Amino acid sequence: MAETNLIIISDVQAYRQIDSKFNQVRFDTFCQEIQRKNLRGLLGDALYYAFMSDTRAAGIYKELLDGKQYQESSNSIQYYGLKPILCYWWLAIAARESELFHSNVGAIQFVNNQQQNFETAKEKERIATGYMETAQTYANDCIKFLSANAASYPLWIASSEVNQTNFLTFRV
Length: 172
Hints:
two-stranded antiparallel sheet, mainly alpha, 7 helices
């Protein structure tokens, strides 16, 4: 299975300001890591591998990635897709591992000063934790979407024993 990045820099820029010249190799590395670890953990092995091997040109996997409106108990629910989850996971890992990063309060320059390492690590972790909390909110919506549309995603049912919780925790 050839691995494809499900998000690109412009997808992340829709949620937070990052430099469009962010190192593409580093961007790809972060994407691959969150897809292999976090996304696979969210979807379960069977659905993850089916999803990643599909072309996602149309159909249920495109809806899973890009989102859609669906009905639940005669209410119209907007599901935003996997992209926001992936973007916030990406932001979390980038916040922990990058030197210059744009957060919700503006540009932050992380310096490599021995006296400031502890404060920098705390700030990076605080920012990353905020991104992970936002990703978790979207992940919970994804779980609701998959559960409400279980007939369209039979591989989700196979992994439902692992994914029945309303609260998941992922480490980046």
